[in-house]
């Protein structure tokens, strides 16, 4: 097994870009990928957690995560820090009103909300002295600021983001999405300079099919010329088109959105994107057996870590899957999102059943039929009894997953979250379920009363 090892610093970066250019799509690269599955500097806890899971080839799906022993409901099976994290906000300056409102005050390093009860406290917040738009670059504490200077907000990042903000073709003419992609590329090239090993890890992730629609090609060309125009450190040449394309594909396939807290009155938006190398091995299933939790504003340490917990018990050897979006989406929307964002169609057990529904029921007006389907699902999660559910859905032969919705869907209006038990204590399993979106805690007794 071969590892690509390079020294830190400028020299390393030049070499890295050159070497990557030559091997990115070669046979050797494929072998290389296996060698860099896990970051060398993995924390102890991360390594310990991986004893529960094995990366394996899954028929028809590529690589996936398999339980290497039986796993218990609520058990934490993975906890990991991101190798890369970047803001989900476009680069153009927000309107003055929005900029001064609370919703834009995040730490630019750890993305904690700086106002409100969980905020880092306004008095210790530090503003980057070099950024032209201080609202965009504020740190929750002197500690976060000094960490950022050596990692996420190096002088090069600071300079590059300033440069991009003053680039009219980007901030005035391009879609918000393009501006966020530019942020990602700055973060990724910065990673190559500050942590070549983490950059390798990023490159080792699955990028799926190359992005090749007309729109993708135009975006890659535009972004590559934009990044090439940045003031690159002396001696560093501009990144190749291939490298930019590969990075964008990996980001699209693997980035997890760190979401704003749930609020009943507005749609939940993404605050930051993060890449977790091990978590990115989880495949999708429309009825997942594990789900992710994050505690961006509440965790004391490692608030950007991802935590994956088991929803229910599974035996050894079973594949562990997450749902890449809320479980209550209808069949067509799920298939569309998987195709658009990840390039595959889902063949999970639930989809096999629901594919027949849509053939039968919504040939004429799929949109309308889907809405009804969603309503039914929301209705169930709001606590209809099982008998009623079966009548509505034509018996459980047609709906083997009714149990999932009754047991593991949050019943708060518009939440769409999934419930997993709190981690089991030494004395046995937990009987309190936690919603991974709104954080609502629900006891087993409460669940029994409802069903
Ligand atoms: Zn911070
Ligand atoms: Zn700055
Ligand atoms: Zn599916
Ligand atoms: Zn919820």
Please list the strands of the largest sheet in the order they lie side by side: 1-2-12-9
The mean pLDDT is: 78
Determine the fraction of residues in helical runs and give it as a percent range.
25-40%
Count of separate DSSP helical elements:
17
What about the largest sheet?
4 strands, mixed
Ligands bound to this protein structure: zinc ion
The gross shape turns out to be globular
Cα separation of the termini = 53 Å
DSSP summary, beta strand count: 15
- Poorly predicted tracts of residues: 1-48, 117-122, 362-398
Strand content: 5-15%
Query: What class do helices, strands and sheet pairing give?
Result: alpha+beta
Radius of gyration: 23 Å
Write up what this structure looks like.
This protein is α+β, with helices and mostly antiparallel strands and 451 residues long. The protein is 40% helix and 13% strand. It has a domain at 84-256. The protein has helices spanning 9-23, 27-35, 44-49, 96-100, 142-150, 155-165, 168-171, 176-194, 196-204, 214-228, 241-254, 331-342, 349-361, 366-381, 386-393, 402-408, 444-450, and strands spanning 53-58, 62-67, 76-80, 84-87, 126-127, 138-139, 256-259, 270-275, 283-284, 290-293, 306-310, 319-322, 419-421, 432-435, 441-443. The strands form five sheets. A four-stranded mixed β-sheet has the order 1-2-12-9, with no helix packed on it. It has a three-stranded antiparallel β-sheet with strand order 3-11-10. Helix 8 (176-194) packs across helix 10 (214-228). Bound molecules: zinc ion (4 copies).
């Amino acid at each position: 097994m071969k590892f690509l090892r390079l020294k830190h610093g400028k020299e390393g970066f030049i070499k890295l870009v050159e070497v990557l250019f030559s091997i990115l799509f070669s046979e050797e690269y494929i072998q290389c990928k296996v060698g860099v599955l896990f970051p060398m500097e993995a924390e102890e806890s991360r390594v310990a957690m991986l004893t529960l899971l094995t990366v394996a080839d899954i028929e028809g799906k590529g690589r996936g995560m398999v339980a290497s022993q039986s796993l218990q409901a609520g058990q934490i099976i993975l906890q990991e820090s991101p190798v890369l994290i970047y803001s989900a906000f476009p680069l153009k300056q927000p309107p003055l009103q929005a900029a001064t409102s609370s919703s834009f005050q995040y730490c630019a390093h750890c993305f904690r909300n700086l106002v409100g009860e969980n905020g880092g406290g306004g008095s210790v917040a530090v503003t980057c002295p070099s950024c032209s738009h201080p609202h965009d670059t504020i740190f929750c504490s002197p500690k976060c600021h000094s960490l950022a200077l050596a990692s996420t907000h190096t002088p090069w990042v600071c300079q590059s983001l300033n440069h991009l903000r003053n680039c009219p073709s980007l901030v005035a003419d391009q879609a918000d999405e393009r501006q966020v992609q530019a942020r990602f590329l700055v973060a990724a090239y910065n990673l190559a300079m500050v942590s070549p090993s983490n950059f390798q890890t990023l490159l080792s992730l699955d990028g799926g099919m190359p992005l090749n629609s007309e729109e993708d090609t135009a975006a890659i060309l535009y972004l590559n010329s934009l990044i090439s125009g940045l003031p690159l450190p002396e001696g560093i040449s501009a990144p190749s088109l291939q490298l930019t394309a590969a990075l964008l594909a990996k980001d699209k396939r693997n980035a997890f959105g760190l979401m704003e807290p749930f609020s009943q009155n507005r749609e939940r938006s993404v605050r930051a994107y993060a890449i977790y190398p091990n978590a990115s091995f989880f495949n999708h299933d429309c009825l997942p057996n594990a789900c992710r939790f994050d505690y961006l504003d509440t965790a004391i340490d490692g608030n950007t870590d991802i935590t994956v917990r088991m929803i229910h018990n599974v035996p050894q050897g079973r594949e562990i899957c997450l749902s890449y979006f809320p479980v209550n989406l209808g069949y067509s929307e799920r298939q569309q999102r998987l195709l658009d964002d990840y390039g595959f169609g889902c063949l999970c057990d639930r989809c096999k059943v629901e594919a027949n529904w849509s053939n039968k029921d919504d040939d004429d007006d799929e949109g309308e039929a889907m809405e009804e389907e969603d309503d039914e699902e929301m209705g169930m999660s709001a606590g209809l009894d099982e008998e009623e559910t079966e009548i509505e859905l034509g018996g459980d032969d047609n709906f083997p997953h009714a149990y999932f919705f009754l047991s593991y869907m949050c019943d708060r209006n518009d939440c769409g979250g999934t419930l997993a038990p709190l981690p089991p204590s030494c004395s046995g399993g937990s009987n309190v379920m936690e919603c991974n979106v709104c954080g609502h805690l629900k006891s087993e007794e409460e669940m029994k009363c409802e069903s």
